[in-house]
Amino acid sequence: MKNIRLSELPHESVSSELRGHVANPRVSGTFLLIGEDALPYAYAFARALLCESPIDGDACGTCSTCRKTNKILHPDLVWIVPSGKVQATKEEKEMKGLEGRALVMNKWVTAFRKNPFIRYEDWASELKVKNINLPVADLRYAIEQIQTRQYEAQRKVVIIWGADMMGTGGNIMLKTLEEPPANRFIILVARNKSSILPTIRSRSIIITLPPLSENQLITFLSSQMRVSTEEVVTVAEWGRGSVSLTLSLIKENSRLAKGRATELWNIIHQKGPEWQTWINSSTDKVDSISTTKEIVKWILSIVDPQFAHLGHKHIQVLSQPPALKEIMTLVEDALYSLNRNVNPKLTLHYLLNRLHEVYKKYVDN
Ligand SMILES: [Zn+2]
Prior knowledge:
Blueprint: H1 12-23, E1 29-34, H2 38-50, H3 64-69, E2 77-80, H4 90-95, H5 100-114, H6 120-127, H7 136-147, E3 156-161, H8 174-178, E4 184-190, H9 198-201, E5 205-208, H10 214-224, H11 229-239, H12 243-269, H13 273-284, H14 289-302, H15 305-308, H16 313-318, H17 321-339, H18 344-364
Parallel strand pairs: 1-4, 1-5, 2-3, 3-4
Helix pairs in contact: 1-2, 10-11, 11-12, 12-13, 12-14, 13-18, 14-17, 17-18
The chain binds zinc ion.
Zinc ion binds next to helix 3.
């Protein structure tokens, strides 16, 4: 997703409320956006506030400020994000001379661009740290920034992501939150309302994101994030109507399916009666049609000629035309059956037996 604007985000009521605030701007203010998906709204709202010629309260997307905010960093858009004991890579340290806040911001731009619906957990793993937090020093930096005049735009916006983590440290911000100087805005972003001090809540305009319906999720994720309907439906029950949670579940699901597919290929290598037992116990673990489809697709991707050269030499043999063609036909047949609701265990069992034959034919000889 590039050039993120309020009108393109899925919670229409929230977008229109925020656009109302841009169209009829107050002099300054503190907003508190709450919800799993609140982060991209904070960013799109900030872009609209900074835009030189907003359209119906939304960023125009084309003015020189919008072009800059599209790159995430702009001198008048200040990000405060949680961090931890972050280590710079050799390149970051030696080539780019990055450390401290600059290092975190450099990683942040990459991570946020990759996924504007990033969760705390994803960010911690991007930073390669166990725990992330929002130290008081960062809050002091936020205060300092809000007191300093803007450089280029007509306004200045400070986004504090992870306001849940401020704890009582947030008390040092009360005066600033109460009344930021003219043309300066603070956007606090939190997952839950309950973790925010009442003294902070009372000083903010609170906007809570309601959960999306399954259809809204499907429409948004398929049009904007290249996710298939099927992938959304598989995890919808646990996604709680949140884009970020659904995306993270899909990623996890696909990681698990890949693991299972690799395991199955290893099983195909096995010979003798032991092998049949392996297949039985392995297919026993499979239950849903959608998970089986994921596994079947991964089985095919393992012999994809583009990547197979990275694999075992047997996999390389199977990624050559005659064997590959047979495998592709078997996989297509399996997907065809699964699309017609044939029992997933039976389908996978059949597929694995046939794949074992292909293996024997091309590799064992
Ligand atoms: Zn603009």
